[in-house]
Fold each of these.
Amino acid sequence: MSSSHGGSGAPPPEPERPWFDDDLPNDRQRARYRRQIEQIRDGLVEALNSPDRPGWGAPRSDDRRIALDTYPPGVEDSADALFVYRTDTLLVAPADLDDVRADLGRHEVANEEDGRATDDLGLRVLLLEPDTRSVSDRVGPERVPSPVERALAALDAEWEVRRSGSAEGAEGGEGSQPALRSVSYDRVLHVATASACPATDPEPVRDLRPLPPVAADPMLGNGVKVVVVDTALPVQSNHRELVTDKSWLKGVTGDPEVGMTRAEYRGHGMFVAGVLRTMAPKATVHVEPLVFSCGGVLESDFAFRLNEVLKEHDPDIVNLSAGTFAGPGGTVPGPQVASHGHVLVTYDSLKVMMDGLDCLLVCAAGNNGDTEPFVPASTNWPVAVGALDAYGRRARYSNHGSYVDVYARGSDLVNAYPQGPTVIAGHSLDFPDGMARWSGTSFAAPMVAGLVAARMSWSGENAEDAWASLKGIAIVNNVGGRPILGPGDADRP
């Protein structure tokens, strides 16, 4: 395999990082995941209940305090959590809203509609009764279900009634199963991966050149607009332009963050934008900080704000280096059994938004080294990107399986990072040159997004067609059946 895709004649390196080894899951990985899940959960609770939260952040109806919990219900160790969700909201497809509210009413489950949803957004949010449970109410034999759990149980009961009625009314056997209502938990999307964090923490480097290097053709990406949804950039208030001495990031813009980004996520959006610009140096790139400073954002908040961002910037491509586990039935319709709460209502809405604007969504596939569905990458309509190591092999942390569309190098990339000292995972680090080495599917995704932008700028193709052309190249480049893209694959012929 060519060196442009990460290949090398050198012997395989030692295991990439001490926290991730061949015995998965391992205690070090679990400890890291536990810490990150708890930090995201606690930090987001603090942000959502703060008067300084962004204006689009989830409102506190009737001055209620917003609470988050982990799924599966009652899990005692955060390392066993599949996802984090808001405990007093339910996401509903607009077509099912009236029926869902009627079903809940029959079970005396109080609910009201969140007024933030606009008519053009294919998503509605129901506010349930406030979650007044104490910490001790959430685990153990005396555990109290959350308002969302009680609402989903009521919907399951109504589905069973409809199913029984269908069976009794059928002639000559059991009737067809009634459709489940399209409802979902209001999950937390978090930066980068199912590990709830990038595959590694950033490491200072003294090399002032990015890796991969900036494309030789300075016009690649010209005329193409990309929005990077991530953590905030260090930007000036005037024109929202990034303050940087890195030539490949000149002209990148972003909105200022609310609060101070926590160390594990500091610079993530900047690094992602830098990788994208190495592939498409002339692309118009705007970094939108839709991820709170703690590294997470509620799906409902994400959808509401992204709808506004798409209208404002009209991008050709959106890069999303974030996601979450969805739980059972997270990628395809499951068997017709009563199991509400796993339908991907938010991502159905996002697809409608993207299709309406001819916009391509490129997503990180996640970093837990598994085939477990990681959304939105695994919903089968965005471009799902897995990571290669520096030797062109699938990085061991990279999610994989049938939903991953393409692989690109994600390990040991070097790019721009906020300059100066910081503390990460209890360790004091200094980035005197504003450069870092970092790994994760978070950084493979913008490489592919940048390649799509690069090809669009000279081919005349729209984003979908440019991706289709690149996918054909990736299939030709395949190693072990894995489609691969790398620097040079979007150059002019």
Amino acid sequence: MKIIRNLNQINSQLPPLVMTIGNFDGLHLGHMQIINKVKKIANEKNIHSAVLTFEPHPTKFFQTKNNGDFRLTSLAQKLRIFDEAQIDYVIILPFNHKLAEIAADDFVSKILIKKFNVSDLVIGYDFTFGKNRLGNFKMLENYKFNLSEISPVKIDDKTCSSTLIRSLISNGEIAQANKILGQNFSIEGLVISGKKLARQMNFPTANLKYKSHLIKPKFGVYKTSTFIPSLNQKFKSVTNFGFKPTFNNISFEPIFETHIFNFSEDLYDQKIIVEFHDFLREEKKFSSLLELQKQIEQDVKNAL
């Protein structure tokens, strides 16, 4: 997979591309239907597939107030999914004032056609683009490339959308969010050192920082699984997300604490990927460490 991060990287005309355009936050089932259509056309015509996306997310760019707790996937996670889908080109355009001011016609003629040599374009049913979002499917029909529009995908009579998934995750409805995602919601990062208080209760945890630009799940305990890339293994686990109220934690940021079943190796500074399967209970403050230990024992049983 070739990654293009700036239009200046393109010094000569690219080969003909089957392209889709979007933010693709979460890469849910609706997004994957678009990606699969791109791949299908590319295979049929024996040409390259491409995804054009933006960084930062345009919503973040346009919002003037603090807009953390938003993204479902980091850029690294998106790139990994595109790579697994065997997309040939991923173009990441910096979303800034200059790009936001490009008229829809200019975006098509100067970028899609001239720069990216698009022969086929696949878009979602609600796709708009260009200054003031004036570009849409009807406007794109005026150009000579082949155009495909993908209808909405519905699960349990609900249209798959990043907005819906964000709401479900914020409310702890992880299992339902995963159905719409078509994969397990996950977080990833390097394991950080903690105060080792859980280890004193025989429940050592691998701790991950909460990244403020990503969606904030509901505080509480989750049934999870943890993939350790260095071992190429996945383990059952249970994860608490919150402020550790029993320990009178004064941190201003919540933390992910994951107890990995039947595992005792040192993971500090190693990357792990934690997949969320179900919400078990809300976070609460216990009257004693013994009471907390008994609850963790029950959490582990419930997560098995």
